[in-house]
Design goal:
With about 750 residues, this protein is α+β, with helices and mostly antiparallel strands. Helices cover about 55% and strands about 15% of the residues. The strands form five sheets. The chain has a seven-stranded mixed beta sheet, with helices on both faces. Strands 12-17-16-15-14-13 form a six-stranded antiparallel beta sheet, with helices on both faces. The protein has a four-stranded antiparallel beta sheet with strand order 3-9-4-7, with no helix packed on it.
Length: about 750
């Protein structure tokens, strides 16, 4: 670049001073400087079995020397050097986000043993070590917060700019940055087995490999090269002037043009990495961009992949919160996945756990321990216990209807409550499915090893086209291969059992934030954050990048052909043609860099204050969701007996509605919905939700009237029971549906699944 520009500038200065011969020598020297690398590029392409348009560059450079058009040759030389330099700069810019992952990799850790803190090499960290994470440190290994709330910047992994608070006992992934004060981390994995090490390995493999669309550009050269030679020869024969032939070859030198396609692909890889998606190659990005079938695992992909407490049923006279506290206190010492969910739920509710003694765990039965002088057992019912009590039968029915796992809590051998758990659907899942449909996916298939009933329930909510339940890994591979024979197929999974199916798909996508190493290694694309909607982001990025790559190639070739026609008719001399071709090539490469930005048609830009509102109301939903059970419990008590206890329960429900739920719904109506009208481009987007608010208010008013009538009559009258039951059960159903709709349609715009 320096030499060719220097030769052009020196020749221009000599020409201005009247030294025409010196000017020609300088320009000829610049042309010769470019011929050497241009020939090397052609030879390199021939060794790879390709005959690209670099050959035209060599012919045009040699042609300008032959006919004495030294200025044109020097301009072509600058164009070639400038195009290569621009491509190199574009690639560096496009891949800087991938390189940033490698540059941020921690090299050491601070380990505390007693009162001593020592700095050790990262490879010396072992699971169980207590590490000190100073402000600004990159967390070196996966672990759990040990001593205080940690304030973390997770943007490098998730793309989310807002800081996240992780309480004591919560998991922390390696690679995030401590954005608050120092805290202690109990390591749960070595550096090699931690999240960030896996992402770094993937980043090392990600790069600007030639995608099929780049080979498409080479296929363009298959007809463009003979067309250029034909037009140059025709111009020479028709006019008898070799200068015209050279002019045609000059404007037919689109070397940077064919670099525009890989620049667009590399830019797409870069943009994907910024939103938490590592794509191994340009080929995977291009295939993702025109896929039409999506096959998904259920557990851990469409669902959260970890059980959560959905209900606590207590015996009459026992508080549900106390049942959960007892269960969590005993389960603190258990490694069972359900025990972890119970402890997490109790901690989230702020319950004070007791330290158990004489703890004993029996595989397949549960855990028992002594708490405050009583023996508490958490797990299955003992062989001598029966579920004949009404409350126990109610708990069993709820578990069966909700496809939930059940954990019984017994005190001194007497069942006193039950905790119901299930793997919830990701809040992002319904909206993600709609986005994938709009992005061109016309067939959505779910594969799961789970039973048919819960699988059908998920498929109904998400509107899937096909469901295969009780699938073994071999069954999944067969199903993916069958889909791949029909169309370009993407497979999404997270477990070790998904690895073969991921490898069998056209494009394998692994949920890598918590997924198994085997699935990540088998995948072409890895979502480094635990958010399903990043799959839709990756699809949008892939389609946008491919669109820009093809657009840049086609537009550039069309402009070149038009310029060649003008040169063939003598309307464009070689020097002017070289300048014009320079402008064409630079413009298409700059256009290819647009792939670094999002497609404006798919973006839903959220103002900062609107996003803050969404997070605020989402947090209120999390708090209110636990209280909805009070509405159903009131109805259940009323069914059993419309006595004073039932009336007292309905009173509590009425207070809950007046003091918490109705104010929340009114605030949404007056504050959140108007704010959403701007990014959603219409107030109609929230109109149906407003109608639901009106129905919630109507049912709440009706329940309040029933409470007044019952208090005036000294109790619930028989004629009130049916309508009051309809109001309570109806309100419970409406609120649950309304919460789900808002979370999926609106809160999902701002909320991270990992915090759901």
């Amino acid at each position: 670049m320096v030499l060719t520009v220097g030769a052009l500038a020196a020749g221009g200065l000599a020409w201005l001073l009247g030294a025409r011969t010196v000017a020609d020598i300088c320009w000829a020297a610049g042309t010769l400087i470019a011929v050497v690398p241009a020939v090397a590029w052609v030879v390199g392409a021939l060794r790879q079995g390709r005959l690209g348009v670099d050959l035209i560059a060599v012919l045009s450079l040699v042609g300008t020397l032959w006919v004495g058009e030294y200025l044109a040759g020097s301009l072509i030389a600058v164009m070639l050097a400038g195009g290569r330099a621009l491509e190199s700069a574009a690639s560096r810019r496009a891949s800087r986000d991938l390189k940033a992952l490698l540059e941020r990799a921690p090299r050491f850790a601070r380990r505390r043993v007693g009162d001593q803190v020592t700095t050790i090499a990262l490879g010396e960290v072992a699971a169980g070590d207590l590490l000190v994470i100073a402000p600004g440190d990159v967390v070196p290994v996966d672990g759990r917060v040990a001593d205080t709330v940690a304030v973390l910047d997770e943007s490098a992994l998730t793309g989310e700019p807002l800081h996240v608070e992780r309480p004591v006992g919560d998991t922390v992934r390696s690679g995030v940055v401590n954005a608050g004060g120092a805290f202690e981390l109990k390591a749960t994995a070595t550096a090699e087995d931690s999240t960030y090490a896996g992402i770094v390995r993937l980043a090392q493999q990600a790069g600007a490999e030639s995608a099929p669309v780049v080979r498409l550009a080479d296929r363009y050269a298959a007809f463009f090269l003979p067309l250029s030679l034909l037009m140059a020869g025709a111009a020479w024969l028709a006019s008898g002037s070799a200068v015209r032939a050279v002019a045609v070859l000059v404007v037919a030198t689109p070397c940077p043009l064919l670099l525009a396609a890989p620049v667009a692909i590399v830019s797409g890889l870069s943009r994907a990495s910024r939103v938490g998606v590592v794509i191994r190659s340009g080929g995977a990005l291009e295939n993702l961009g025109h896929a039409s079938t999506l096959v998904m695992d259920k557990t851990g992909t469409l669902t959260m992949g970890r059980p959560q407490v959905v209900d606590v049923v207590a015996a009459p006279g026992t508080d549900a919160g106390e049942i959960l506290r007892l269960a969590a206190s005993v389960d603190q010492l258990s490694q069972h996945v359900l025990a972890e969910a119970i402890v997490t739920e109790a901690t989230a509710r702020g319950l004070q756990l007791s330290m158990p003694t004489d703890s004993a765990e029996e595989a397949g039965r549960g855990v028992s321990a002594t708490l405050d002088g009583v023996r508490v057992t958490v797990g299955r019912l003992s062989d001598t216990a029966t579920s004949t009590d009404d409350w126990m039968q109610t708990a069993l029915n709820r578990a069966r209807l909700d496809s939930a796992a059940m954990v019984w809590v017994a005190v001194d051998g007497e069942p006193r409550g039950a905790v119901l758990l299930r793997d919830p659907l990701r809040r992002q899942a319904p909206r993600t499915m709609r986005r994938l449909r709009s992005a061109g996916i016309d067939r959505l298939v779910m594969l799961t090893g789970d039973r048919a009933e819960p699988a059908r329930e998920v498929a109904t909510v998400l509107g899937l086209d096909e469901v295969y339940a009780q699938q073994t890994p071999a069954d999944k591979v067969a199903a993916v291969r069958a889909e791949r024979e029909r169309a370009v197929t993407v497979m999404v999974g997270d477990g070790i059992n998904d690895a073969p199916a991921l490898a069998a798909a056209t494009v394998g996508v692994a949920m890598g934030a918590r997924g198994a190493t085997a699935s990540s290694e088998a995948a072409d694309v890895v979502l480094t954050t635990d958010r399903l909607d990043r799959l839709a982001d990756a699809m949008d990025i892939a389609r946008w990048s491919r669109h820009i790559a093809v657009q840049s190639a086609v537009v550039g070739m069309t402009l070149s052909v038009a310029a060649m026609a003008a040169a063939a008719f003598g309307l464009l001399p070689p020097a002017a043609g070289a300048l014009l071709q320079e402008a064409i090539d630079v413009s298409v490469i700059l256009n290819a860099l647009r792939a670094l930005r999002a497609n404006p048609r798919t973006e839903v830009p959220l103002p900062a204050d609107t996003e803050a509102l969404l997070r605020e109301f989402a947090a209120e939903h999390d708090e209110l969701r636990d209280t909805l059970a009070q509405i159903r419990d009131s109805a259940d008590r009323l069914v059993q007996r419309p006595d004073a206890a039932a009336l007292d329960s309905v009173r509590r429900t009425n207070r809950l509605l007046i003091e918490r739920i109705l104010p929340h719904e009114r605030a949404e109506e007056t504050t959140l919905y108007p704010a959403l009208a701007v990014p959603l481009h219409s107030g109609e987007a929230t109109a149906t939700m407003s109608r639901t608010h009106a129905e919630i208010q109507r049912l709440a008013d009706r329940i309040g009237t029933h409470v007044q009538l019952a208090e005036q009559a000294g109790g619930i009258e028989p004629e009130q029971v049916d309508d009051l039951l309809a109001c309570l059960y109806g309100l419970y159903a409406v609120l649950r549906l309304h919460f789900s709709q808002e979370e999926e349609n609106y809160f999902a715009l701002a909320q991270d699944d990992a915090d759901s």
